[in-house]
Write a structure and sequence with these properties.
CATH architecture of one domain: Alpha-Beta Complex
CATH topology of one domain: Lambda Exonuclease, Chain A
Helix content: 40-55%
Shape: globular
Order of helices and strands: EEEHHHHHHEEEHEEEEH
Radius of gyration: 22 Å
Largest sheet: 7 strands, mixed
Number of helices: 8
Distance between the termini: 62 Å
Strand order of the largest sheet: 8-7-4-5-6-9-10
Structural class: alpha+beta
Number of strands: 10
Strand content: 15-25%
Length: 257
């Protein structure tokens, strides 16, 4: 996950970016894409919780025998959140290590990230990217959204918007929506929060890095993909604002006896 350099706030569980110079805030691209249904999450949550119970059966039994059933329930219930937190921490560290390595190939990194960095180096040897922008925030005044991309690089003569992913499950098609939105932002910001235009993006892609493998995934970011993102932007508006005001004061009646 990219750490935004533009200031952000969280409102009702959604992340918003504050424009550096205008009195405007906009929902993040990832918060908007979260409007898509994720039916697999229920199954994944159940699996992680079940694994936590089986793998830690002695600890759970100790809590139950000590009459701490509620603590046992809460600990098991939090298993998916713990799993996500560990994965997010690894992803953040890999992102930061890559950012540092692009700026300075001799920059140190944590020893446990060695397999990820080796695979990143193999990608660089194979595709010879010319790094142009790394970890920049973008803002769309036109459609009111914002976000932060991982990198823009010239790859095999194409201006490429690149996203780094370390997820165990691989690359989701949702990344195409994310990159389509970033590529059409009105502006991006340098380290001093000065506004600058995005280059003409010719392709989107995800670089998947795992300890034992890596992959380069080109992604479609054409207008039809962006149109779907804009539909999700309208859905976000419903969830975050319109749904709170859609219902007027009810008029109720008691049944006459």
């Amino acid at each position: 996950m990219t750490n935004p350099k533009v200031q952000t706030v969280t409102v009702s569980g959604y992340r918003y970016y504050k424009h550096p110079s205008l009195k405007v805030q906009a929902p993040s691209v990832t918060s908007i894409i979260d409007m898509l249904p994720a039916p697999f999450l229920r199954q994944w949550n159940s699996k992680v919780t079940a694994n936590a119970a089986v793998d830690n059966i002695e600890y759970v039994n100790e809590l139950i025998m000590a009459n701490k059933q509620e603590k046992a329930r809460l600990w098991l219930k939090a298993a998916p959140e713990r799993e996500l937190s560990i994965a997010a921490d690894t992803g953040d560290r890999v992102h930061k290590a890559i950012e540092n390595r692009i700026a300075d190939p001799s920059a140190p990194y944590d020893h446990d990230l060695e397999p990820y960095i080796q695979n990143f180096d193999q990608f660089c040897v194979e595709y010879e990217p010319e790094w142009l922008h790394v970890e920049r925030s973008v803002f769309s005044i036109t459609h009111l959204y914002a976000g932060s991309f991982d990198a823009i690089a010239m790859i095999r003569n194409k201006m490429t918007l690149l996203d780094f992913k370390t997820t165990r499950s691989g690359i989701s098609a949702k990344v195409a929506l994310q990159l389509a939105a970033y590529s059409r932002a009105d502006e991006m910001f340098d380290d001093n929060m000065n506004s600058m235009p995005l280059p003409d993006i010719q392709q989107g892609a995800a670089l998947w890095l795992r300890p034992d493998k890596w992959g380069f995934f080109p992604l479609r970011i054409e207008d039809d993909i962006f149109d779907t993102f804009l539909a999700l932007r309208r859905t976000f508006e419903w969830e975050a604002r319109q749904s709170k005001t859609a219902m007027l004061a009810p008029i109720t009646y008691e049944r006459q006896q």
